[in-house]
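Bug: token stream looks shifted between consecutive jobs. Job 1:
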Amino acid sequence: MTSDPIRLGFSAESANGQPQTISESLDLLEARDVDTVEVPLLWMELVLNGRVMPDRLAALQAALKDRRFQWTAHAAIGLNFTCDPAYLPLHMALARAHLHIAGAIGAEHMVLHTGFFATGSSSAQMARLYDQQRESLMTLAAEARETGVILCVENIFSEKGNRITASPSQLAAELRLMDDPNLVACLDVSHAALQCDAMGLDFEAEVAALIPLAKHVHLHDSFGRSGTIPVHTRFEAMGFGTGDLHLPLGWGNLPFDRLLSLGQFPAATIFNVELNKHLWHGLDDTVAEGRRLARMARVAR
């Protein structure tokens, strides 16, 4: 366990969705002495029609028992609080189920993505749905407070023309507007690069806007190039250097050192590495590089 101001975490893997299969990746991470582990609720068979499956939760709790890690959790990527209002109850039910699980495993943070809109959505439509998202997130933040979990809202990306979503600076403005201590940012550096490439935004300025709110940071490498070239396999995507590749740190060209100089992170921030499962052969170098980045980052006092 580190005594550094910023802890280093790593996202675990579940082999086939069954909670007990997370143990293999936990063994690998325990041998690398990471501080926190992000439990991938989105990849696990834990919730059915908005309800937690008690036997699956018990299996997950058993798999995590007696491990020395501190825990975080990642909720479903499909959650979208700027959805059609007719579907909002389904999104809230799944979010609440994942929040219940996060509380039951003692997760400090639960990551969930910011909303997205269909292309062609009008400004008036998006304004109404941003109101809906704020109300939803603030409701969940109040419930998270009761379970001891902090919600970390992650920036995502548009690619080019496939959806509309907030830039990192827009997400920062939304979080400041809600002004809830249980509602902070998850800065995903690669997602920020892809959004800036798609939208023609200033990468450094966008990252700098979110850093002061980012108690959680997702680290993985890419080339910041929107995935507009059709590919058939993840290896083709790697070959083209396009899209959200989740590469080992140092394999892409994201300027992590320079970005970390742009501001101060909140106290108790976690840097969590998200490495694609087929690239875990790069685990050792990525943990070492993640630890280096965590040590060089500045933290507000």
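Job 2, same session, no restart:
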Amino acid sequence: MIALSDIHVGMHVVGSDGQPVGRIRAVEGATRLLLQDTTLADGDTHYLPTSHIVEITDQVHLDCSGAIARTLFDKDLPAGENTT
């Protein structure tokens, strides 16, 4: 079982292929992470569903490649969603 409490601000998030996805800015409830996208020069922030987390070590590891993870940014997370 993944313990979201093990995720801390500043941790790197990586895809299953080891490619960087971003850095944690916040964990919002039990359903999403707020990430700073470190793969783009502008460093935009995005939401990513926590359902894709498979392991937490010194990094947050996802069940999909970095490229796929970036396509999941902000998907299925409508404004005002209850994240608790």
